[in-house]
Design brief:
By secondary structure, the chain is mostly helical. It has a domain at about 45-70. Helix content is about 85%, strand content about 0%. The mean pLDDT is about 80.
């Protein structure tokens, strides 16, 4: 069972490692966005979306808990 999990993990991770070995680690697009300050806008939007999802999930969990206790 453990060997099967290990093999699955290797098959999932190895293509990602091979793909990351294709470039030198610097993307022209990321460098351009960083130099123009746009990367901060992208990060801010991503953080805002993630915080919104987390808050939504917490509120939904509280409502479900309240319904379960009432029933």
């Amino acid at each position: 069972m453990r060997m099967k999990k290990l093999l699955i993990t290797l098959f999932v991770l190895l293509p990602a490692l091979w793909a990351s070995a294709q470039n030198d680690g610097t993307s022209e697009q990321a460098t351009g966005m960083r130099s123009e300050g746009k990367i901060y806008v992208v990060v801010a939007v991503a953080v805002t979306i993630l915080l919104g999802l987390i808050i939504y999930m917490i509120r939904l969990d509280r409502k479900l808990t309240k319904l379960e206790k009432g029933a």
